[in-house]
What we know:
By secondary structure, this protein is mainly alpha-helical. It has helices at residues 22-32, 38-44, 54-62, 68-76, 107-112, 175-182, 199-213, 228-236, 240-254, 257-260, 264-268, 270-276, 281-299, 315-322, 326-338, 353-364, 369-376, 384-388, 410-422, 434-441, 445-453; strands spanning 80-82, 85-88, 91-94, 313-314, 350-351, 367-368, 407-408, 431-433, 459-462, 471-474. The chain has a three-stranded antiparallel sheet. A three-stranded antiparallel sheet has the order 8-10-9.
Amino acid sequence: MLDRLTMPFSNWSVEPGNTEGAxxxxxxxxxxxxxxxMRVYSKWIEVNGRxxxxxSLLEVVCxxxxxxxxxxxxxHATPVERDGSYWLGGQRFARRDLSFRRRRWCxxxxxxxPYHRSWWDILAVxxxxxxxxxxxxxxxxxxxxxxxxxxxxxxKSGNALAGPRRPNVLRRGTLxxxxxxxxxxxxxxxxxxxxxxxxxxxxxLCHLVGRLVSNSKTDSIPQLASRTVDAGYRALASDxxxxxxxxxxxxxxxLLRAEIDRSYSVVFGWAYxxxxxxxxxxxxxxxxxxxxKAHATVLTGGHASQADDDGMVSLTELAAEIGVDRRGLSSxxxxxxxxxxxxxxxxxxxxxxxQIAEIKREFGALLSREKVGDLLGIRSWEISxxxxxxxxxxxxxxxxxxxxxxRFLRRQVDEILRxxxxxxxxxxxxxxxxxxxxxxxxxxxxxxxVAILRGEIAVRDVDGRTGFRGVRIALDGNQxxxxxxxxxxxxxxxx
Length: 495
Ligand SMILES: [Zn+2]
């Protein structure tokens, strides 16, 4: 038999609203009793009303003879402290993520139904995701509304808390919508980088990334604006390539090339420090990896790799793996840069799996000076002018067997052979074989080779198989005007 006299309320017909927790529900029951102070009423029913503790109010309302479904919904929407964290909507928040000091609300939500939505207590939620209004914590007289006041339609002085009605559309690109989804109040969607993390970690990440991508580069940590956290959420809401792209775009917008070629702590500043001090190991690893990948992407002028493997390897690690001097690997990467793949500056670099595969491929295909001579149809000591003219970039210290000789990129040799094959030819007239021409003109072979590639010497024919050896030089009448030899490159050959 129910004894109404021992019940804390005489009436509990008020139905809890969607996302309404014990705190707001308790307040509405107090109002329903005709009382106008939560504090006084709580004291009266022997609940500590001085410091609002949502879980003790949950116990009070759950003792009422209400349905299990109602109890379950109220418990789900009530923050409960456990093990130093608050659990709200099945999600873990840090104490600093929530505030019950004074009420915050969306005037358009209150216009729909006057009760307190528990997610208004999450401080990171600065805007209502349904009405795109900033949450307010003061009435029209600029006065805060304390939790002692049990009504949600008006303040004690009669000011309306609700505003005009607005269209109600969930904005999915907001942290608030994501949190509501995680709390099971909205249909599920996927955010692969965030779904495995606690809500409190998600909030930290969205603040960090939002502050970074929605500001220019600053020395101090930028202030939060009402949409900052949502900018962070949108950068983090998709896959890793999307996040890397967002960070890379920020770098390209905000840093000069010389600034990009610096250490991570210089490039990302406070954001790098914050990322390194994230307590959650997987969040920290994910964000630092995205920073490194964005950095490598912008430095190499490449596109963010779609590879989903997180392993970024440093230059030193990669050199050790290949078994080559670090300076040798650096030299190879510089040469690759000159071949149009990467840009200058490798002081602080790391590589993802696809870049590593390419570097290893190029490393395995490096050619000795002798081999380059063979392929180009000249002698090994005759290739220096090609190197001086930039057609071949020598790679130093790139041998695993201790040989200190220069090596050369296969792709650059292939490019020279391609240029030879494509040389425009003079259709008629006398000609002389390449080497015979050099002898007759008394010019170093390497210089003539460079002149041919530059189109300074007219070519009669090319056999297409033996490099320069297969080139026949046109002799009469069609000779192109020869540029001055020492014009724009440093020749390493004596005349
Ligand atoms: Zn709203």
